[in-house]
């Protein structure tokens, strides 16, 4: 029997339109500007935005150590929903800490409502660690939109 913990959901309002927010999540050039953990920079971000398409990124810490991640787009509904996997990639190309992210976008009187759901795929994955990572990224995204 699978005993994965339940998913974790966060909700934010962004002061921008749905199309712009969706583009910020799907355009590799924009991802370079915000999709990194605190204390890091994004060195590379490649996106094949289609169902079954892959994405891959490389973050650098202040000592220039590389941290690779990647995943697969499972569902894409323009300006409404993104579902993709997210995993850490080690030096041998093996993945770990696999989670599935589901992001929905909708109009709100103050801009765009974004709901981010993070669900573990593998046993033993700490979804809370992913939440902390994504909270940092979303703070970067909010600053970008100021």
Q: How many separate helices? A: 3
- The CATH topology annotation reads as Alpha-D-Glucose-1,6-Bisphosphate, Chain A, domain 4
Q: Output the radius of gyration.
A: 15 Å
Strand content: over 45%
Domains, number: 1
N- to C-terminal separation?
A: 46 Å
Mean pLDDT: 90
* CATH homologous superfamily title: START domain
* Structural class by SSE content: alpha+beta
Strand order of the largest sheet: 1-7-6-5-4-3-2
CATH architecture: 2-Layer Sandwich
Folded structure, characterized:
- This protein has 146 residues and is of the alpha+beta class.
- The protein is built from 3 helices and 7 strands; from the N terminus they run E-H-H-E-E-E-E-E-E-H.
- Strands 1-7-6-5-4-3-2 form a 7-stranded antiparallel sheet.
- Strand 2 (41-47) and strand 3 (54-60) form a beta hairpin.
- It is globular and about 45 Å long.
- The chain starts with 7 loop residues before the first strand and ends with a helix.
Give the topology.
Elements: E1 8-14, H1 18-26, H2 28-31, E2 41-47, E3 54-60, E4 66-77, E5 81-89, E6 95-108, E7 111-120, H3 127-144
Antiparallel strand pairs: 1-7, 2-3, 3-4, 4-5, 5-6, 6-7
Can you describe this structure in just a few lines?
The protein has 146 residues and is an alpha+beta fold.
Label this structure with key terms:
Alpha-D-Glucose-1,6-Bisphosphate, Chain A, domain 4; globular; alpha+beta
